[in-house]
């Protein structure tokens, strides 16, 4: 437990919690968070022409830029490859699971951003 990663990991994920950090449980956890987030976004649709709706429209325009998507998809691909390539290392299994959860959350966020047009202002939906 001399490495900085182990010291930080011991505070964030003690030994009694690490036994529950598996890829299957992380996938279920991320999908459940995704579904709750999606439900809250559908239920809390902002008023048209409000500041929130305009801000969401600007953010959506930014994250749909091709250069942003290229960098995000390259980062996701490299991250998933890194998790796969280090599958033989048992020492940092918990770290790989947490990293996988972050990558899966990013992937689900990107997918929902394109496939489910929630919070699109009615004036742009034509």
Structure description:
With 126 residues, this protein is an all-alpha fold. 71% of the residues lie in helices and 0% in strands.
Q: How do the helices and strands follow one another from N- to C-terminus?
A: HHHHHH
Secondary structure: number of strands: 0
Number of helices, where a helix is a run of at least 4 consecutive DSSP H or I residues: 6
Helix content: over 70%
Principal-axes shape call? elongated
- Mean pLDDT reading: 83
Taking the sheet with the most strands, its summary is:
none
Low-confidence stretches: none
Briefly characterize the structure.
The chain has helices at 4-12, 15-18, 23-43, 51-63, 66-85, 93-115. It has 126 residues and is mainly alpha-helical.
Fold blueprint:
Elements: H1 4-12, H2 15-18, H3 23-43, H4 51-63, H5 66-85, H6 93-115
Helix pairs in contact: 3-6, 5-6
Features:
single chain; 126 residues; mainly alpha; elongated
């Amino acid at each position: 437990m001399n490495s900085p990663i182990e010291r930080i990991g011991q505070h964030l994920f003690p030994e009694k919690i690490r036994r529950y950090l598996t890829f299957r449980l992380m996938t279920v956890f991320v999908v459940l968070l995704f579904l709750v987030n999606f439900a809250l976004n559908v239920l809390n649709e902002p008023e048209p022409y409000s500041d929130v709706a305009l801000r969401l429209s600007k953010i959506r325009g930014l994250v749909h830029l091709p250069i942003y998507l290229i960098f995000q998809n390259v980062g996701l691909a490299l991250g998933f490859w890194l998790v796969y390539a280090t599958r033989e290392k048992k020492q940092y299994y918990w770290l790989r699971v947490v990293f996988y959860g972050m990558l899966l959350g990013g992937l689900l966020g990107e997918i929902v951003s394109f496939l489910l047009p929630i919070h699109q202002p009615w004036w742009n939906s034509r």
